[in-house]
Amino acid sequence: MADNVNIKDFSGASVAVMTDQVTHPTFGTGQVQVFKQMDGTPDSANMQSINAAGEALVVQNNQVSAGNIINGTLTANQVYTGTSEDVSNYAEIRVYLYSSHASATDGLSLQQSSNGTNWDLVDNYTLAAGETKSIAVAVDSRFFRVVYTNGSTASTATRLGVVYHKTAGRGSSVRPQDARTNEIDAEEVMSFNMVFNGTTWDRAQGVGGAMNVRQPDATASGSLSAAAAATTLTVNGTSSTAVQITGTFVGTLQFEGTVDGTNWVSFFVTPNGTAATVTSTTAPGVWQGKSGGFSIVRVRMSAYTSGTAVVTIRAGQGTGNVGVDSPARGTVATSNPATATNGAQANTITDKIGRQVVVTNHVRDMCGTQATTITSSTVATTVVAAGGAGVYRDLTNITITNSNANTSTIVTLSDGTVPVIYNVGANSGVSVALTTPRKATNANTAWTLQCGTSVASIYVVIDYVNNL
Question: What is the CATH number of the domain that holds 388?
Answer without folding.
Answer: 2.60.120.1540
